[in-house]
Write a structure and sequence with these properties.
Radius of gyration of chain B: 27 Å
Largest sheet of chain B: 3 strands, antiparallel
Number of domains of chain B: 2
Strand content of chain A: under 5%
Shape of chain B: elongated
Largest sheet of chain A: none
Number of strands of chain B: 5
Number of strands of chain A: 0
Structural class of chain A: mainly alpha
Number of helices of chain A: 16
Number of helices of chain B: 13
Strand order of the largest sheet of chain B: 1-2-3
Strand content of chain B: 5-15%
Oligomer: heterodimer
Order of helices and strands of chain B: EEEHHHEHHHHEHHHHHH
Distance between the termini of chain B: 40 Å
Chain lengths: 343, 268
C-alpha cells in the first residue's frame, strides 16, 4: 500500500497536535499525575498515534514524519506506563528519617555479604600480621609510611604534643572533612567495585585487612598495643565496620548482577544497595569527626583507658543499632519486605 | 497496563522498543562525544557553584577558616554527586548540560528514569571515572551496543538524543506545479517501490543542503545520485532525462518519493 502522505498528514495532524499539547501539559506538572479524563484521552491518542506510526513505517518513504511520530509515541508511552515519584516527597522529613531504620533492616537482610566482607578482611589481617611477625623484611613493603614502621617515634611525638599545630579546633574541623570525604570515596569505590562481580571489592577489602593486621602486630610487638587501641578505637569502631558494610554492598551488587536475568525487581535491589551506601556514609561522617577531634589527643590530655572504654561503648551502641533497630517491624513485615533475590 | 516487559534491541546508533501493545519505535542513542561535552559543561557548572558557595562561606567563616574549609570540602563532595542524581531524577532525566546538548537519561525499557536509578548511575561514577578521565566508563560506552557506561548498566539506564522535533513541513519539491516524472506513472511507481528509506533520505538531504555544499561537490553528488537512480532504480526515458539537469532530476524524484500524490490518484 502506498500512503497518500498529504491527505494522511492533513487528517491526522490535529490528533498529533492534541497529543503533543496534552503531553506538554503533563510533563510541565510537578507531580506529572493524570486525572481519569486525561488518562483516557492520552490512551486514545497514543493508540491512534501508534497506528499512524505503523502506517508510515510500512506504507511511505517519509523518514522525518516517522521520526516525529516515533518521538511522539515514545513520550506518550512513557507517560502512560510510569508514574514518577513526586517532587513533594523530596521535602518530607519523615521520609528522610526512615533511613535510620531502613539501614539496620537492610544490613540484617543482607548479612551474609557482611560475613563475607568480614571473612576476607580477617584473612587479610591474618596475612599482614603473620608477615610482620615472622618476616621483618615485610615491614617495609606492607607499612610504607614512616609513622607506621616506627611506633616508638610516633608515640613519643604524639605524647610530647609535637603535632600541636594539628590540634587546634580549626585544623581539626578541616582535617575531619578531609577524612570524611576520603573515607566515603573509598567506601563508595568498594561498593561500586561489585560491578567486577565482587573481585575488586574482595581485593580492596583484603588489602585493607593486610594493612590493619600489619599495623596491629607492629605496634603490639613493640609494646604499644594500648596506645594503638586508644588511637584507633574511638573512630575505628565506626570506620572499619563501615568499610565492611561498603564491601557488603559491593558483594550484594555482584549478586544482583549475576542474577539479574532471574530477578527483575531491579528497583528494590538497587534501593537496598543505596541504603547500605547511605548508612555507610553516615557512619563515616561520625568516624571522621571522632578521628579529628578525639582520636588524635593522647595522654596526658586524655587517658588511654578512657579512650579505649569510649571506643568500646561506641561499638556496643553500634552493635545494638545494627542488630536491634527495626527488628520488631521487620519481623511483622517479613513476608512482604524480603526482596526477590533473597527468596 | 500490561505486566509484560517491552522488548528492545539496539543497532549501533538507536534502540528499538517493541511495547507490549505491539508498537515499535526507535530512540536515537547519544554518542560519546555529545555526552562528554555535556559532562564537561556540568563539571563547569558544579565547580562554578562550589566556588561561589565557597566565597560566601569564607566570608561567613572569616574568623574561623578551618570551619570554612570543612564546609566547602563536604559541600563540594555532596554537590558533585547530588547535582546529577537530583536533576536527572526530578527533571526529566536531564542535567543542565544534558538539556543544552539535547540528551536525556531514560530507563532502558524506554520509560522515565526513576530516582533510585539516577542515584545509582551517579554514585557509580567513582568506578567509571577510574583510573583517570573516565577511561573505564568511556571504554564501556564504546564497547556496548547500548552505549552504556558501567553506571548505566548497573542502573538499567541509557542516554538518548532528544533534539526538538516538529511535524515535518511541506517541502517545496512536493508542491511543484509540474513534475515531468508524473507523465510516466509506471516508471515513477517503480521508483517509489524500489527506493529504500535510506536512499530517499539521502536524496532529501542532498537537496536540503544545497547551499551548504561547495558548487563542485554539489555537482558531483547530484550527478552520481541521478546516475544511480537512472541506471539502477528506475530508468526514465532518455529524451526526458536529457532535458533535465541532475538537480532537477533529483527534485522530480523527490517529488515522486515524498508526498506528491497525483501518482497515487492516477492509480487509485
Amino acid at each position: 500500500m502506498i500512503l497518500d502522505l498529504e491527505r494522511f498528514q492533513t487528517q491526522a495532524g490535529p490528533r498529533w497536535s492534541n497529543l503533543e499539547s496534552l503531553l506538554v501539559a503533563i510533563e510541565g506538572r510537578p507531580d506529572r499525575r493524570l486525572n481519569p479524563v486525561e488518562a483516557e484521552q492520552l490512551q486514545e491518542l497514543y493508540a491512534q498515534a501508534a497506528v499512524d506510526l505503523n502506517r508510515v513505517t510500512h506504507g511511505a518513504l517519509a523518514p522525518e514524519l516517522r521520526q516525529y511520530l516515533e518521538r511522539l509515541v515514545a513520550r506518550a508511552y512513557t507517560e502512560l506506563h510510569y508514574v514518577p515519584p513526586t517532587r513533594s516527597e523530596l521535602w518530607q522529613p519523615r521520609r528522610w528519617l526512615r533511613i535510620f531504620t531502613l539501614f539496620p533492616e537492610t544490613f540484617r537482610r543482607q548479612s551474609r555479604y557482611f560475613a563475607l566482607s568480614m571473612l576476607i578482611t580477617l584473612l587479610g589481617c591474618a596475612l599482614g600480621g603473620l608477615a610482620v611477625r615472622y618476616d621483618p623484611a615485610a615491614v617495609d613493603v606492607l607499612l610504607p609510611a614512616n609513622y607506621l614502621r616506627n611506633p616508638a617515634q610516633r608515640v613519643h611525638e604524639e605524647e610530647q604534643a609535637k603535632n600541636q599545630d594539628r590540634h587546634s579546633t580549626q585544623a581539626e574541623a578541616a582535617f575531619s572533612a578531609q577524612l570524611i570525604r576520603h573515607n566515603v570515596e573509598v567506601a563508595m569505590l568498594a561498593a561500586a567495585l561489585g560491578v567486577t562481580f565482587g573481585i575488586g571489592t574482595a581485593l580492596l577489602l583484603f588489602e585493607n585487612g593486610v594493612l590493619l593486621g600489619a599495623v596491629a602486630v607492629r605496634y603490639t610487638q613493640q609494646g604499644f598495643g594500648l596506645f594503638m587501641s586508644a588511637w584507633l578505637l574511638p573512630h575505628g569502631v565506626f570506620e572499619i565496620p563501615s568499610i565492611l558494610i561498603a564491601g557488603q554492598a559491593g558483594f550484594y551488587l555482584a549478586r544482583v548482577l549475576l542474577r539479574r536475568r532471574e530477578d527483575r525487581d531491579v528497583r528494590q535491589s538497587m534501593r537496598e544497595w543505596l541504603v547500605l551506601i547511605a548508612g555507610t556514609a553516615m557512619m563515616l561522617a561520625w568516624a571522621g569527626v571522632m578521628e579529628a577531634f578525639f582520636s588524635q589527643h593522647h595522654e596526658p590530655v586524655l587517658p588511654y583507658w578512657f579512650k579505649v572504654a569510649f571506643g568500646g561503648a561506641e561499638l556496643a551502641l553500634l552493635t545494638v543499632y545494627l542488630v536491634l533497630i527495626g527488628r520488631r517491624k521487620t519481623d511483622a513485615e517479613a513476608d512482604n519486605r524480603v526482596p526477590a533475590e533473597t527468596k | 497496563m500490561t505486566g509484560s516487559q517491552p522488548m528492545r534491541w539496539a543497532t549501533t546508533a538507536e534502540l528499538t522498543i517493541a511495547t507490549p501493545e505491539g508498537v515499535l519505535f526507535r530512540l536515537p542513542l547519544a554518542g560519546p562525544a555529545s555526552r562528554l561535552y555535556a559532562m564537561l559543561l556540568d563539571i563547569a557548572i558544579v565547580l562554578g557553584t562550589v566556588n561561589g558557595i565557597g566565597l560566601l562561606i569564607y566570608w561567613i567563616f572569616a574568623k574561623a577558616p578551618g570551619f570554612g574549609v570543612m564546609v566547602i570540602t563536604l559541600a563540594e563532595f555532596a554537590i558533585g554527586f547530588a547535582y546529577g542524581a537530583l536533576l536527572e531524577g526530578f527533571w526529566n532525566g536531564q542535567t543542565i548540560g544534558k538539556r543544552l546538548f539535547h540528551l536525556r537519561v531514560i530507563d532502558q525499557s524506554g520509560l522515565t528514569l526513576r530516582i533510585e536509578q539516577a542515584w545509582v548511575r551517579n554514585l557509580m561514577r567513582v568506578f567509571d571515572a577510574l583510573p583517570f578521565a573516565y577511561l573505564v566508563g568511556g571504554l564501556s560506552v564504546l564497547s556496548n551496543p547500548l552505549m552504556q557506561r558501567f553506571g548505566d548498566r548497573v542502573a538499567g539506564t541509557l542516554v538518548i538524543r532528544q533534539s526538538p522535533l516538529v511535524a515535518p513541513g511541506e517541502e517545496f519539491w512536493t508542491h511543484q506545479k509540474y513534475n515531468s516524472f508524473m507523465d510516466y506513472p509506471t516508471v515513477a511507481m517503480k521508483l517509489r517501490r524500489a527506493a529504500t528509506p535510506e536512499l530517499a533520505s539521502l536524496i532529501q538531504d542532498a537537496l536540503r543542503r544545497r547551499n551548504e555544499l561547495a558548487s563542485y561537490a554539489r555537482r558531483e553528488i547530484y550527478r552520481e545520485l541521478a546516475a544511480y537512480l537512472q541506471t539502477e532504480i528506475s530508468p526514465f526515458p532518455d529524451e526526458l532525462v536529457e532535458m533535465l539537469s541532475d538537480e532537477q532530476y533529483l527534485i522530480n524524484a523527490a517529488g515522486v518519493l515524498f508526498g506528491d500524490q497525483r501518482l497515487s490518484r492516477l492509480h487509485g
